[in-house]
Amino acid sequence: MKSIRDSCRLLSVIKFQRIPEHLIKRMSLCELNKPEEPSQEDCCQNGCNPCVFDIYQNQLKLWEENRGHTNSQRYDLLSQTRFKPFVLKDIIPLTANTNLYTFQAAAVQDSNDTVGVLPFKAGQYVALRFENASKEPAFETRDYTIVTDKDEQVNGSFQVLIKLYNPSRTSEYIKTLQEGSITYWRGPLGDFEYKPNKYRHVLMICMGTGIAPMYAIIKEILNNESDESVIKMMFGCRNPSEIIFREQLCRLSAHWNFNYICYLSEDYSPKDKKYSETFVHGKISEEHIQSCLKLSLENLQVLICGTKKFNNEVLSYLITNGVPKANIYMF
């Protein structure tokens, strides 16, 4: 069995290579889902807590406890302990320096009884590994939130939002990618878990690419007809041209339980408005947040995502205005 697993792993790194059907039939799903021991290259050497080796030990313990007691008809294309190869399939420009990237598992295969899936939840992220020959260790990692809805998975693919900065080693690497490029990802990571109808109101406060987890969670809520949580999003941008997912947000606002306000730090013209957008001039302030806190504080969840400074300021505003810290989550 060990040689079969090794063969499967070798095949998984070959571009567009499918796992041979005769091997799949000889391998149990239990073995396919056994956690893979990370190598030193899978560790970012940044002192993470938990470390990838801690994650592996915890997952291995759970796997051993549940071995032989699972009826799962799937195996995971992503791994929390090893970087897996994914092919860049598409790049969609959203703003002048922000794109939507689609990546597909390099070893996608179809079978009647075995289905490869991406086991992520709304709000979780994946880690990208890329080579940096001028630094020790020789690899760097960068985290990106998955914006794909679970129902939007197509042939083992996921989408991430990436803003290109200058100068930036990560951005320089991203700029070299083109359709067909092989990239390496680990995940899903992150402990956020949305629970339908747990809160009557969900207030989202974000800026820039901080909209990524919010966008995924919004779709999760709106696609669930039994979820009656009401969403309000405060979205900070510099100007109308930098409103990420602008058309998508407009379409989503047709739902009865979602609306959003864009707070623009730069001047804009009324002609810049599209659809039924609501613009407020200025950065998101404590006064703005107070105006949105006319909801029941006991039945309110607040989600925050932006820069570290932005997150800390918003957190301070919320606590000062009586929002329980247990009801606040910062990405």
From TrEMBL:
Keywords linked to the UniProt accession: FAD, Flavoprotein, NAD, Oxidoreductase
One Gene Ontology MF term: cytochrome-b5 reductase activity, acting on NADH
Residues reported in the UniProt entry to bind FAD: R142, Y144, L161, K163, S171
Catalytic activity: 2 Fe(III)-[cytochrome b5] + NADH = 2 Fe(II)-[cytochrome b5] + NAD(+) + H(+)
Gene3D superfamilies in UniProt: Nucleotide-binding domain of ferredoxin-NADP reductase (FNR) module (3.40.50.80), Translation factors (2.40.30.10)
Domain FAD-binding FR-type: 81-195
Superkingdom of the organism of origin: Eukaryota
Enzyme Commission no: 1.6.2.2
Required cofactor names: FAD
UniProt feature coiled coil, ranges: none
Record family assignment: Belongs to the flavoprotein pyridine nucleotide cytochrome reductase family.
Protein name per its UniProtKB record: NADH-cytochrome b5 reductase
Organism: Rhodnius prolixus (Triatomid bug)
